[in-house]
């Protein structure tokens, strides 16, 4: 599975931005897509994920501010981010996962830097 992210860059605090991620390759088995992020000195943390059934999950720090959605084909996910804070600054990683009886196969995109300025 290959993941191509679009978006990122620099935005002012309080502003909004969108990130998108498109999957390609062996995508038939993907049943979850989403975003994680990692700030300097911190562990990678959940931002938001969505399943093929439309079930969403959000990290506590972004609930109520970020919204994740997918297209009907479940090949592209869109992350709408509002009320951005300085602490949202991080490298954002797109992810796609195949949850199966033997475990989880997860793929990662290269990461896109996103900086919130004051």
Structural summary, described in words:
- The structure is a single chain.
- This protein has 118 residues and is mainly beta.
- It has strands at residues 2-6, 9-12, 17-24, 32-38, 45-51, 56-58, 66-70, 76-81, 90-100, 103-108, 112-117.
- The strands form 2 sheets. Strands 2, 4, 5, 6, 9, 10 and 11 form a 7-stranded mixed beta sheet that branches.
- A hairpin with a 5-residue loop joins strand 7 (66-70) and strand 8.
- It is globular, with a radius of gyration of 14 Å.
For the largest beta-sheet, the strand count, sense and barrel status come to:
7 strands, mixed
> Which term fits the overall shape?
globular
User: Can you count the beta strands?
Assistant: 11
Helical stretch tally: 0
| Helical content (DSSP H or I, runs of 4+) | under 10%
Structural class assignment = mainly beta
Helix/strand order: EEEEEEEEEEE
The proportion of residues in beta strands is over 45%
End-to-end CA span: 37 Å
Radius of gyration: 14 Å
- Return residue spans where pLDDT drops below 50 for at least 5 consecutive residues: none
Residue-averaged pLDDT: 94
Summarize the structure.
This protein has about 120 residues and is mainly β. It is about 0% helix and about 60% strand.
Supply the key terms.
118 residues, mainly beta, 7-stranded mixed sheet, 4-stranded antiparallel sheet, 11 strands, 0% helix
């Amino acid at each position: 599975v290959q993941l191509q992210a679009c978006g990122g860059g620099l935005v002012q605090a309080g502003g909004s931005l969108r990130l998108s991620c498109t999957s390609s390759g062996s995508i038939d088995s993907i049943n979850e897509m989403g975003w994680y992020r990692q700030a300097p000195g911190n562990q990678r943390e959940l931002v938001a994920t969505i399943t093929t059934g439309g079930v969403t999950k959000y990290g506590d720090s972004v609930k109520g501010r970020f919204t994740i959605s997918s297209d009907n084909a479940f090949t592209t996910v869109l992350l709408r981010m509002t009320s951005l804070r300085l602490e949202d600054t991080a490298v954002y990683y797109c992810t796609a996962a195949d949850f199966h009886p033997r475990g989880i196969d997860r793929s990662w995109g290269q990461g896109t830097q996103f900086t919130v300025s004051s």
